[in-house]
Design brief:
48% of the residues lie in helices and 7% in strands. By secondary structure, it is mainly alpha-helical.
Length: 346
């Protein structure tokens, strides 16, 4: 097992990989030293499988549940920490048949192929919730390494969403004969909140002295606060003066409210919209009217500018000329919002 080394002029021992056939110089002329180096290369610690097994052994010592904890256990743990609408969404997602193949799979033994099989359903909710499960397990140190690398996760493909137009909204209102439901759709248009937030509004959320409507979003806990205009005030005054503004709709499941709205739209020949589309409508109207972004964030109950911009990305905005703004500024009729923007730009 040696080959002549032309550079050293002597016999240098080499070894050959029995699997790949690749040869490698051991860099020594001493037979005993060569044997020691060869034995070292054959030690199990040079193999990835050995390292993984050692890691599992250490994990078992520090976490006895590591060999029995399943992905269903992870789901149950997450659900136990949630509340309200978020908990309901997690419970619904956990029941998805797409997760059946990994429910009883031990977390620490998970393989990428098993996750990819779940993602093969190509459902947005499955992709989103599996990723959250994976990240939670990793944050809790229940995984030795990522099952799927961050860059290798299939991209989430959301369905195209659009806003409800003013004409469509008017047709929906004219068709709706139920007073409570009609007022509900009116508030969706004027407030732009999610359907659950609107359905659970209370008379106490209205401050008539300051003419403001304020409530905490059920999904994020972020406060939503907006001024009450004349049209919104007209609708609010037609609703109960105390307690829930929508006594019946507040008891209806979110999915059922969505189904009823979809049926009404279908009867009018309106497609491609949901109750959530009212949220896009409000944002697009705000953008088209040059409503200051920070005000829109507060009204929508979003702390992120990116989210507010995403809602209004399709808004048609007619930009006034700089000259017209300069003329208004010189005439002293420019709004406080514009003055503030000018000061910040300076």
């Amino acid at each position: 097992m040696y080959i002549r080394d032309k550079h050293s002029g002597g016999k240098v021992w080499w070894c050959q990989d029995t699997e790949t056939g690749k040869r490698e110089s051991l860099g020594t002329k001493d037979k005993n030293e060569a044997r020691r180096l060869l034995d070292a290369k054959n030690q199990p610690h040079n193999y990835a499988g050995f390292h993984v097994q050692m890691a599992r052994t250490h994990l078992l010592v520090s976490d006895p549940k590591a060999v029995t904890r399943t992905w269903q256990d992870v789901m149950d743990t997450i659900i136990s920490q949630k509340s309200g609408a978020t908990k309901i969404r997690w419970e619904r997602a956990a029941k998805s048949k797409a997760f059946d193949s990994i429910r009883e799979l031990v977390v620490s033994n998970s393989k990428a192929d098993e996750f990819l099989a779940v993602l093969a359903s190509d459902k947005v909710s499955v992709n989103v919730y599996l990723r959250r499960l994976h990240n939670y397990a990793q944050d809790m140190n229940w995984l030795l390494a990522p099952v799927i690398a961050k860059r290798a996760w299939p991209k989430v493909k959301y369905k195209e969403k659009r806003a409800i137009t003013l004409d469509e909204h008017r047709r929906i209102i004219e068709r709706e004969k139920n007073p409570e439901r009609r007022a509900f759709y009116e508030l969706c248009w004027h407030v732009g909140a999610s359907q659950s937030d609107i359905a659970n509004l209370e008379a106490e959320d209205i401050d008539w002295k300051t003419a403001t409507l304020s409530f905490d979003r059920m999904k994020t806990g972020q406060n939503s606060n907006l001024a009450i205009g004349n049209e919104l005030a007209h609708v609010l005054r037609s609703l109960p003066a105390s307690g829930k503004l929508f006594p019946y709709l507040a008891t209806v499941r979110e999915a059922d409210r969505a189904t009823e709205f979809r049926q009404r739209c279908a009867g009018l020949g309106i497609s491609g919209v949901t109750l959530h589309s009212y949220r896009y409508s409000w944002a697009e109207r705000a953008a088209a009217a040059a409503y200051p972004e920070r005000y829109a964030q507060k009204a929508l109950g979003h702390g992120s500018k990116a989210v507010a911009r995403a809602y209004a990305r399709k808004a048609h905005v007619e930009l006034p000329s700089l000259e017209s703004f300069e003329t208004r500024l010189q005439s002293g009729i420019v709004s406080h919002a514009v003055r503030e923007a000018s000061a910040l730009a300076a």
